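step: validate -> pass
step: tokenize input -> pass
step: predict -> running
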Amino acid sequence: MIILSIESSCDETAAAVTENGRRVLSSEISSQIDIHRVYGGVVPELASRSHVQAVQKLADLALRDAGVRREDVDAVAVTCAPGLIGAVLVGVSFAKSAALALDRPLIPVHHIRGHVAANYIAWPELEPPFACLVASGGSSLILDVRGYTDYRVLGSTRDDAAGECFDKAARVLGIGYPGGAQIDALAKTGDPEKYPLPRAKVDGSPYDMSFSGLKTAVVNLAHRARQTGEALDLPSLAASLCRAVSDTLVSRAAEAAEELGYGKLAIAGGVAANSVIRAELDREAAKRGIRTFPAPLAYCGDNAAMIGCQGYYEYLAGVRADSSLNAYATMSPDSRFLRF
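step: predict -> pass
step: emit ->
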């Protein structure tokens, strides 16, 4: 089954062609980093306008590079939630038009489910059930993936996501945008023990997380340094921040995987590209006899290939949408609202 997929939930416009949920025939991405760098973060209106300008050309390019004609497409998949509402709406509108023009089924896909499906691309042996840590700029979740379209949220952040913490810390430290990659690179030469940073716990919810206090601690360190003229050891502060985020994510994900007893733990999302988190997760899972399945670095960030892969399994489960499909800024990955 050949699926043309579209992703536009944040600041990456993406189109891909995939086959049977596991094989990527093409994956095209138009980055907006240069547009948003001057602001230190994503400007929603600029993101939406850029998606409008890029999506048609990317879809044509994805088909061309895959060697697939329009009439050979069996279905169109698109991210419908969650994300910046204007950005998501651009992709949904284009996908509805494409499905109508091609007279093909339209498959709505949850963005977080797409991140989980990125692991299927690299690991053909990975099948549900398994535990999955999804950490990105907008989400930090621990999931019980009971089936390809059957999810249960075990834990989530109560405030900021891990990626948001990285980006805001990088902005106040003047490290650059996007923050996660810059901090990870800087941390490689730093001392992760130099700056004691907080690790929050949520009473009564062992798998839930909080990153707002960690973000505030880094901001306060930066402000205090400027006021006193103290020089910050940026590599060590970056390393300390990576360690604090890793401690928060890894301990909970490993404990959840062990409790579920599947023996399998996947990791996905943009923050899953962080070298400290990947290494610590492998180390902690090995202690517990759990095999890890890290998403390939090329598919950790937002992309349409992961949407096409998940779209295949949504299609098999009977998920369809019509021209009334809307975009949603928020939606839990275990939501039954996906049954359009």
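step: describe -> The mean pLDDT is 95.
step: cleanup -> pass
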